[in-house]
Every structure is written in C-alpha cells, then in structure tokens.
Amino acid sequence: MMLTREYFFYLLIAWMALAVIIFPLLLRVTVPYGRHTKTTWGPTIPSRLGWFVMELPGIVVFSVLFFWGNVEKTWPLLFIYSTFMLHYVHRVFIFPLAIRSKGKRMPLVIVLLAFIFNLINGYFNGYWFGWLSVIYEISWLTDPRFMVGIILFFAGMYLNISSDYQLIQLRRGGRKGYFIPQKGLFKSVSSPNLLGEMVEWLGWALMSWCLPAASFALWTMANLVPRAIDHHRWYKTRFPDYPAHRTALIPWSLFRKKQGGS
Ligand code: NDP
Fold first, then answer.
1. Ligand 1 centroid vs 34 CA: distance in angstroms?
2. pTM of the prediction?
3. How far, in Å, is the centroid of ligand 1 from the Cα of 215?
4. Do 165 and 201 belong to one domain?
5. How far is CA 100 from CA 45, 76, 111, 237, in A?
C-alpha cells in the first residue's frame, strides 16, 4: 500500500499505541509457546516449523519494500538494513534448526499472531527505509548515535545468541526436559537472552534514529518484558532450589557485588 508520510505516521503511531495497550495484557496472559505451551489454544504445529513461519515475514517484507523503494541506498542505510537481516537470517534459518525441540509443538494461533506482527513490523520498517526515509549521508557513520547504537546492537546480539545457545546446550547428550542454567549472565537473571534482544533493538533504533525502528524496539519490550517475568516465575515454581538472588531481567546482583567492593 502506497502511503504519504503523514498517513504513514498516523498508522505507525496507532501501531505503537497498540503496543502500549497490549503490554499490560501480556503481563496477565502467559503466551503459550516453549515451556509455557498449552494444548487448550487450538491446533498445534511443530515448534521448528512455527519459528520459521512466524519470523520469515521479517526478512521478506522488509527486503522487498527496501529494495523496491527509491530512497538512496547509501552505505549507512545498507549497514542498518544488513544488521536487521543478520538477526533475522539467524532467527529464521539457524535458530529453528539449533533448538533441541524434537516432538515439541506450538499453537497455530500463536504462529499466526507472530506472523502478522512480523509482517506489520517488516512493512513499517521496509516502507520507511525503502520509500520515506531521509538520506543517511556517509557522515552518519561517525555520528555518536550511530556509533553507540552499533555497540548496543552487537552487545545485545551477542548476549541474545550466546544465552540462547547456553540454554540449548542444557539438553546436550540427548537430555530431555528443563534444567537450571548456571553460566554467564544466567547467574544473575533468568532470561539474559531476552534482555540481549531488547538491548539489540534499542541499539538498532539508536543507530537508525527513526520512529519505525523505535516502534520495533517498543514492541520487542512489550513482548519480552512479560515473557521474561513469566519465565522467572516458572523457574521459581518448577525448581524449589532456584537461586533466590536471580531476577527476571535486570542483573541487580552484579551491581550489589560492585557496591560491596567484593
Ligand atoms: P527460551 O529462553 O524460553 O528458550 C530458548 C530455547 O532454550 C528453547 O529451545 C527452549 O526449549 C530452551 N530452553 C529454555 N530454557 C531451558 C532450560 N531451563 N533447560 C533446557 N532448555 C531450555 O526463549 P523464548 O522461547 O522465550 O525465545 C526464544 C528467542 O526468541 C529468544 O532469543 C528471544 O529473544 C526471541 N524472541 C523475540 C521476540 C521479539 O518480540 N523480538 C518475541 C519472542 C521471542 P523449549 O522451546 O522446549 O522450551
């Protein structure tokens, strides 16, 4: 759909407002996939297929609109595009194969909702960067917002992926079920992978300094803060010996150690 800048922003602000409305709802409803999967949410499909299908529009819609549009594809803009794709190529093609989720399923309705979410997000960002964006001059590469954004993006991506793989490794050797992760930032928080993903998209929003990217960061937080709280609650219920100092997302124990000088 071809839109003027004005209508684009109306729609985008409505989309961001929806994230703000949905956030408190997600604090009440546990989204049923992964460890929280339920059979009461209708038909299910294999988890691996679910991840592939629901994340794919992030790549396809963004890329088509991006390259179709006539905004000049300068180096900074191509870099912004490439960092987004780096995350999504991993998420769509590598992560689903890496997870040890043989036999696990997720509700089709969740896959459809996430598919729509990625479609809309791909549309807003692809349309913006392809058709409406300002031209990112080469000087943007040395702008502090771009440089700090890159650092946050890659730090977040490292934390996200390394933590995901620490979890995946817990089932090495054919082990099944769930275990208490003990490595890295898991010593302080229950979901460093989700924390990493949030930092990553905040960094991406900073490096591209535009509302569509900020909208994606906002939606990521609206999705992942409640999920991290659900994960944390689940660990405490499931494991009576779960470390009491661990928090859901913010590694307070790291700061406490520093304050105590130990
Ligand atoms: P989880 O931390 O729940 O799970 C990641 C993988 O590790 C799954 O394969 C899971 O298996 C396995 N796992 C998790 N905990 C344990 C454990 N204690 N013992 C053994 N195996 C374990 O991640 P999510 O499903 O919440 O998210 C997956 C990725 O998707 C994350 O990187 C997240 O950031 C991203 N994501 C991004 C969103 C966004 O809006 N941008 C929204 C949602 C997720 P199993 O599936 O069997 O539980």
1. 6
2. 0.95
3. 22
4. yes
5. 16, 37, 19, 23
